[in-house]
Amino acid sequence: MRDPLSALTEAFTSFVLGKVETTRLPVRTSTGQAQAVYLPTAAPGLGDSGVIIGREVYSGKGYIYDPFQLYGQQLPAPHWLVLGESGNGKSALEKTYVLRQLRFRDRQVVVLDAQGEDGVGEWNLIAQELGITPIRLDPMTALDGGIRLNPLDPAITSTGQLALLRTIIEVAMGHGLDERSGFALKVAHAYVNETITNRQPVLTDIVEQLRHPEAESAEAMNVDIDDVRAWGLDVALVLDRLVDGDLRGMFDGPTTVGIDLDAPLIVFDLSHIDRNSIAMPILMAIVGVWLEHTWIRPDRKKRIFLVEEAWHIINSPFVAQLFQRLLKFGRRLGLSFVAVVHHLSDVVDGAAAREAAAILKMASTRTVYAQKADEARATGRVLGLPRWAVEIIPTLTPGIAVWDVNGNVQVVKHLITEAERPLVFTDRAMTEASAPTLSEDLAAAEWETEQRAARFNGSSESTVA
Questions:
Q1: What is the distance between the alpha carbons of residues 98 and 107, in angstroms, rounded to a whole number?
Q2: Which end of the chain lies in a sparser environment, N or C, as judged by fewer CB atoms within 10 Å?
Q3: Residue 442 has pLDDT above 50, yes or no
Q4: Are residues 236 and 378 in the same domain?
């Protein structure tokens, strides 16, 4: 039976308004209906396995990245290009990324450290905290017990040795070897490898053979011995710089015994080499080929090869060709190559444009920090970034970058834990400030990072470091 008061109210409303008041039921909806109405506004993430980088700026989700986990279905290649002007956070990103990767037991990292101050490289502090001694290549100390790397190390195949010798000479000369000079070098290298069996052949042996070729070598090609000597003279003069010139000591002897290639972090300190000299690309070529034959092995370890000032590699057609082979070879053996460059225009407008494009194409991950508008547009064209990303690059603040992981483009804020902070910033004030050591706070830093990742992704089961 209806309530009399309700009936009276309904009659009065009908008399005044000429209609019956509609009863409004409470709104009810399901999760599926809400998802259909409010479409997602953020692109899907990269999964929850790997290392935490930071937070997506627009969605607030945690950003987790690992090329080894993504390789295959989401990444055609595990290689990574990092771009941006100084002071925007590239160095801090590199160092935290390496520290977090090293928390996995199957990871190993090599760093070519080309920057530094007070006689040590930027990675010296991290190496100290991990109990690792950097491999310091310095022409001033090489003759007094310093580190040497031998381009003719027996660990390198004969084909690899000859390719490396050609690269060294071509980089120094600024052009490729002609057929006659290449023949003279090939003959000298073959003779040295065949006749010296009681020790490691060294560059001095090649120089000596180029200056005084064997008659048998000339006769085998039906050429005059004086012609062979003339063809090899320029080559001998170039190699002589590594033997008796300003680079003396680093490459003209047997490889130093005791270099630990099983350490989780291996740092080659190149900070004593003039970054603008011809020595730097030569040095990187030698280190790269030596590592290819001595460090990369068919085991289950995942390896990261991080190169600062990588334009020395990408901008030289001869060095770039060596590293292209390394990158192709490394994909099958779990190698992720990380190239750090200030400006893309440094490497795409020169003589090595074709080789640079080939290496850039292999880098399926690209991280771009703040750049000027013109540079951002040029970078966007080369990398194929969407227009919105190109427009935002000049406005980025330090620590925030555009990440393009095989077409998945996000704006990401890099997060640094308190334990990492004194180790990754290059400012003297930061590195000299008193702070807990890595060994003391490593467990706390791991917990903090894991909790942050889990909170961002809404899951407590994320596998992160």
A1: 9
A2: N
A3: no
A4: no
**pLDDT given at position 2:** 58
430 and 356 inside one domain: yes
* Cβ–Cβ under 8 Å, residues 336 and 307: no
Q: Are 463 and 49 in contact (CB under 8 A)?
A: yes
Sorting pLDDT into bands at 50, 70 and 90, what band is 426? low
Q: Does residue 44 form part of some domain?
A: no
| pLDDT over threshold 60, residue 12 | no
Q: Is residue 90 part of a domain?
A: yes
Structure confidence by residue, pLDDT tens digits, 54-71: 999 998 899 999 999 888
Structure-model confidence comparison of residues 415 and 248, the more confident one: 415
Asked if 307 and 426 sit in the same domain, the reply is yes
Q: Which domain holds residue 15?
A: 4-37
For 326-382, the DSSP string reads HHHHHHTTTEEEEEEES-THHHHSSTTHHHHHHHHHHEEEEEE----HHHHHHHHHH
Answer for the pair 135, 263: CB distance below 8 angstroms, yes or no.
no
Domain membership of residue 255 (yes or no) is no
